[in-house]
Amino acid sequence: MQLIELRNYLDTLLDASRLKDYCPNGLQVEGRSEVARVLCGVTASQALLDRAVAGGYDAVFVHHGYFWKGEDGTITGFRRQRLRTLLSNDISLFAYHLPLDVHPELGNNAQFGRLMGWQGEARFADQELGWIGRPAAGADGKTAACIARSVAARLGRDPLLVGDGDRAVRRVAWCTGGAQGYFEQAILAGADLYVSGEISEQTVHLARETGVPYIAAGHHATERYGARAVAAHLRERLGLATDFVDLDNPV
User: Fold this and answer.
1) pTM value?
2) Whole-number Å distance between alpha carbons of 49 and 25
3) What percent helix, strand, coil does the chain show, rounded to 5?
4) In this structure, are 94 and 112 located in the same domain?
5) Do the domain assignments include residue 128?
6) Hey, what's the torsion of the CAs at 14, 16, 17, 18, to 10 degrees?
7) Are 137 and 68 in the same domain?
8) For a surface tag, which of 29, 77, 159, 215 has the fewest beta carbons within 10 Å of its beta carbon?
9) Phi then psi for 233, rounded to 5 degrees?
10) CA 189/CA 2 separation, integer angstroms
């Protein structure tokens, strides 16, 4: 399909213009005009770009792209190498940050909740980024410690549980990635437990002092699922040849 058609489709699908963000969402680097093969991943790292070149892909789709507010805008060093790889191989780069977090079906929060078997019932925090609802029935939903073990089993890595692991969890709130700043809003929304990707020093004190435990499950680990869902969507709906690559990241 035409690159402009894919751009318009993705912008509409993910409602790219609706959210205030820290980067431009959509087509960040323009490549060849025809797109048949798309490689999807979490971050537009050099390793992912090298995979795209080796595999003969026409475009790359990621959650974490380029041109973040506040960063050095000079095209030198690793930034030059990344852009050189894309431009010299005529590969396009699509990046959707917050739009891929909030999408009700394909988004990171929706996909993570589905993976965990949680029933999302409401949104909270700025731009309705956070989700809150009921944990999975059975042993997974009894206590914060039980849920932490369930997170470990599903993500294939041990999360960090801070606070009262014995607290009964009737309502769980979550926001993937670096969303520790929404912890207090999750507490005010009535959460018995908050799950995100990252954790900060002050988060520990808030968990201890409020009695609401916090699970830090990994930024990359919690945000692998939106880009994977988009890969499947583009394959099924548009007939594009798509692949998702999960490059190992311990964070």
Assistant:
1) 0.96
2) 18
3) 40, 20, 35
4) no
5) yes
6) 50
7) no
8) 77
9) -65, -45
10) 44
- Segment (H or E) for 222: helix 219-222
pLDDT per residue as tens digits for the range 147-190: 999 999 999 999 999 999 999 999 999 999 999 999 999 999 99
Q: What are phi and psi of 179, to 5 degrees?
A: -115, 30
The parent domain of residue 215 ranges over 108-219
Q: What is the pLDDT of residues 189-242, one digit of tens each?
A: 999 999 999 999 999 999 999 999 999 999 999 999 999 999 999 999 999 999
Q: How far apart are CA 20 and CA 126, in angstroms?
A: 10
pLDDT of residue 31: 98
Q: What pLDDT is recorded for position 137? A: 80
251 belongs to a structural domain: no
Structure tokens at 62: 């990621």
Residue 60 φ/ψ region, left for φ over 0, alpha for ψ in the -120 to 50 degree band, beta for the rest = beta
- In-domain check, residue 228: no
